[in-house]
Amino acid sequence: MGLLRWIGLGAAGACAVVFLGGVVADGLGGAVAIGALVVITRSVIGLAGEAGTPRDTSVSSSAGSSREATSRFR
After folding, report:
1. pTM of this prediction?
2. Are 69 and 63 in contact (CB under 8 A)?
3. How far, in Å, CA of 42 to CA of 48, rounded?
4. Helix-, strand-, coil-residue percentages of the chain, each rounded to 5
5. What is the CA radius of gyration of the chain?
6. Helix (H, G, I), strand (E, B) or coil at 62
7. pLDDT for the residue numbered 4
8. Domain boundaries, the chain
9. What gap in Å lies between CA 24 and CA 30, rounded to an integer?
10. Could you read off the pLDDT of 10-65 as tens digits, one per residue?
């Protein structure tokens, strides 16, 4: 009877090691994946910031919104 307990305890210990190893591996894998997503997101935001707006912003404004138009009609 004692031998069966030790076998059962050994099997339970082996299952616990496999289960805990799986949990630890999943946790580490998740942490690495989240870290990679953070780095990728920061890189994309940095690239978007560097791209900015075009240098040539020659957009014609309407007559009512330009500074000259408002000063002429005063």
Report:
1. 0.50
2. yes
3. 10
4. 75, 0, 25
5. 33
6. coil
7. 79
8. 18-50
9. 10
10. 888 888 888 888 888 888 888 999 989 999 998 888 888 877 766 655 555 555 55
